[in-house]
Amino acid sequence: MNFFIREQFYAKGRTFKSAASKARMDIESVFLNEKYHPIKIEIIRRKGNMNYISTSLKNHFQVMLLWKNAIRNIKQGDRLFIQFPLQQHSILLNLVLKKLIRKGVEIITVIHDLESVRVIKRDDISFFKSFILKKEEVFFLKWSSKLIVHNDSMKNLLVKQGVSPTKLRSLQIFDYLIPNYNLKKINRKFDRLKPIVIAGTLRPHKANYIYHLPINLNFNLYGVGYIQNNSPNVKYKGVFQPNELPYFLEGSFGLVWDGDSTQSCSGIYGEYLRINSPHKISLYLASGLPVIVWRKAAVAKFVVNNKCGFVVDSIEEIKSKVKSMTDFEYNSMRKNAEALSVSLINGQYTRNVIEYNN
Asked: Is the dihedral of CA 19, 23, 26, 28 positive or negative?
C-alpha cells in the first residue's frame, strides 16, 4: 500500500488545520487522487516556538512518539512518502524511521528545500536549529529508498555529495493546482506591453533586488513583506490566497529572480536558484503567463526547451528584449505557457514522478 505523511496543526475541538504550503498541499492532493492513504501527524504548536524546533528533549521525545504511534500499522512492502523538510522536527525521529526501513518499508522523500545550501547559511539561524536541520537532511539523503528532487541541477549536486544517482528522480517543475480553472478569465490580463509581474516573498532579506529595480520598466508586485516606497514604476497589488492569485495577476511576463542584486541572482537566495525550481514559476505558467528567468537558474533549461519565456543575465536586459520582441513572438510564448498550464493545474508532473517510482 501507498501512504503519505500529512503534518497538521491540532486545533481546538479536535479539528485539523493544514500547516503546509501551497506546494505541499498540491502534492497531498495528487496523493489523495491516486488513492494513497494519509497518515496524520499532529504538529504541536507552542507559544513562542513558531519554528517548531525546541531545545527541550521532552518535546523531541513527544514528537517521536506521535510518529511511532501514527505509522505503527505500516507493513513490509508498503511505501511511505514524506515531504521534506519536515514541518516539525525531532532529533529522535531517525530511530522510528530506521525501524520502518528494517521492516522492509520503502521511504520515498519529496524534497522541497535543501536547507544545507539555503537557510543554514543565514547569520540569524541558531546553532541548535542549524544542527537539527543538518542532522535531518543527512538522514533522509542517506536512508531514503528514493528521493524526488526539483531538477537535474539539484540531482547533480546530490550526486557530487555522494548520493547514489539510482535513487534520484527529477520532478522538473512543481505543479500548481487551480480548482475550477478558467483560463479565459485569466489570460485577458496578459499583454506584451504591460508591467513585469513579481510574485512571492517580498521581504528584503530574501528579495532585496526588488528595492533596486530599474526605473525604465514597470512592475506589478504580489506577495507578503513588501516595504512600500515611492517608486512610480512599481505598483504593489497586495496579498492573495494561492488558488485565487492566478486570477489577479496582470502583466506581460512573470519574473523568476531572487537575491540582493538586479545585475545577477546573488546572495544565499539568489545562488539557491542554481538548483531550485521555485514555486513562482509554477504559478506564472499555470496562469498562462510566460516567464523571464535568470540565465544560470536551474529552471532556465526548462524555459528554453518549452519556449515559454526567455532568459537574461540581468534585469536591466529585459527592457531591450521586450522592446525588440514582436507580438507574434510574445503570443507564441504565451500559448506555450498556456499549454504547460494544462499539466501543471492537473498535477501531471507529480503524477509522472511518483508513477515512475512504482
From this structure: negative
Total-model pTM: 0.91
Cell numbers describing residue 188 = 485577458
pLDDT digits (tens, 9 = 90+) for 116-144: 887 666 767 777 777 778 888 889 999 99
Give the whole-angstrom CA distance, residue 94 versus residue 61: 12
Give first-to-last CA distance, the chain, whole Å. Answer: 11
Task: Map out the domains of the chain with their CATH numbers.
Answer: 2-144 (3.40.50), 183-345 (3.40.50.2000)
| pLDDT band at residue 186 under the 50/70/90 scheme | confident
pLDDT at 120: 67
Cα-Cα-Cα-Cα dihedral sign, residues 229, 230, 232, 236: positive
Report CA torsion sign: 131, 135, 138, 141.
Answer: negative
C-alpha distances in Å from residue 74, one per residue of 4, 42, 91, 96, 335: 11, 18, 22, 12, 45
Residues 67, 70, 73, 79, CA torsion sign: negative
